[in-house]
Amino acid sequence: MRRWISEAITKIEADFQRSADTHLFKLPIPGLRDIDIYLKDESTHPTGSLKHRLARSLFLYALCNGKLTQHTPVIEASSGSTAVSEAYFAQILGLPFFAVMPRSTAQSKIDKITFYGGKCHFVDSAPQMHAAAVALASETGGYFFDQFTFAERATDWRGNNNIADSIFAQMQHEPHPIPHTVVMSAGTGGTSATLGRYIRYKRFETQLLVVDPENSVFYESFVKNDPDLTQNWSSRIEGIGRPKVEKSFQRDVIDDMMKVPDAASVATMLWLDKLIGRKPGASTGTNLWGALSVAKSMMEKGQTGSIVSLMCDSGDRYLDTYYNPDWVQKTFGDIGDYSDALNLWLTESA
């Protein structure tokens, strides 16, 4: 048993060593005055999203806590990206993998999970995922990874090339090396917890702004300081927003939160595609809308500095949904007002 665990950890660490760090790039936005906005492109991981980091951490956490044997089925509740990355690592270790997800999950993500040998178990909505995953783990004798509980504790937030350590290292030679604000959306809350803890550990003055979509309880929970809020509907921005306050969501390391309209997230995603010639996912639109809002406030106050956020995954996964005008109109209505507001940033008089 110990020998298999040692070999499994070696395989995961070898995958890490084969992967270069992700790029941090500055956005060419003419309307910014003495403020720079950067996106860290997490779509270039082997499994195409920020969740590659989380999946690696969760596997190491489970292995080092003695939760996996060479025959243990791995169970996860995921709307897609985490499951894709976990299926990848499960395949490396030769473990069966089952993803519990809403039926509305993008087909491209479902295809990726099955490509890596995983199986999908569907439920009608996000609030049903946790109970279904617990039941499936019991039926199969598997181990439920439970990303929404363990994301914040599985990551070494002090360093070891986590997302925060990487961002601040890459910013060292920029005009404003210590960001004024880091903007991050929340799915599990694990990444925002890592960022907030690291900022405090390093004693930076950087502010952490967490942006939240509609149909999510994180924002209201933060404002009301109520960790028990729940609702019975799902976020329309895939990968972020939750119907309940997850255990990985660490309110006390967040400086501020912002509720972002879903139509604004989609409009910003499409605007960014035209700006840089690369398709991001909708959660990146949420992040960037928040970053631009911070930039506007800074400019009004005569402040200078840098803002950093994340490009969480590639829009190639959403060609049938967020990049389909008919689907967007049906799901979100007219996004034209947000698009017009964004286009003002393309002029130097913004």
Structure description:
This protein has helices at residues 2-18, 51-64, 81-93, 107-115, 129-140, 147-154, 163-170, 190-201, 218-224, 262-276, 282-300, 325-332, 336-343, and strands spanning 24-26, 35-41, 74-77, 97-102, 119-123, 143-144, 181-185, 207-212, 256-259, 305-311. The protein is of the alpha/beta class and 350 residues long. The protein folds into 2 domains: 11-45 and 159-346, Rossmann fold (3-Layer(aba) Sandwich); 52-151, 3-Layer(aba) Sandwich (Rossmann fold). The strands form 2 sheets. The chain has a 6-stranded mixed beta sheet, with helices on both faces. Helix 2 (51-64) packs across helix 3, helix 2 (51-64) crosses helix 6 (147-154) and helix 10 (262-276) packs across helix 11.
| Tally of separate helices | 13
CATH architectural label of the largest domain: 3-Layer(aba) Sandwich
CATH topology of the largest domain: Rossmann fold
- Give the biggest beta sheet: 6 strands, mixed
How many strands in all? 10
Q: What is the H-and-E element order?
A: HEEHEHEHEHEHHEHEHEHHEHH
Mean pLDDT: 94
Shape: globular
What count of structural domains? Answer: 2
The share of residues in extended strands comes to: 5-15%
What Rg, in angstroms, do the CA atoms define? 20 Å
Q: Low-confidence parts lasting 5 or more residues at pLDDT below 50?
A: none
What is the CATH level 1 assignment of the largest domain? Alpha Beta
Q: What is the CA-CA span between the terminal residues?
A: 62 Å
Q: Strand order, biggest sheet?
A: 1-2-10-7-8-9
Percent helix, as a range, is 40-55%
Task: Please give a handful of descriptors for the protein shown.
350 residues, alpha/beta, Rossmann fold, 2 domains, six-stranded mixed beta sheet, four-stranded parallel beta sheet, globular
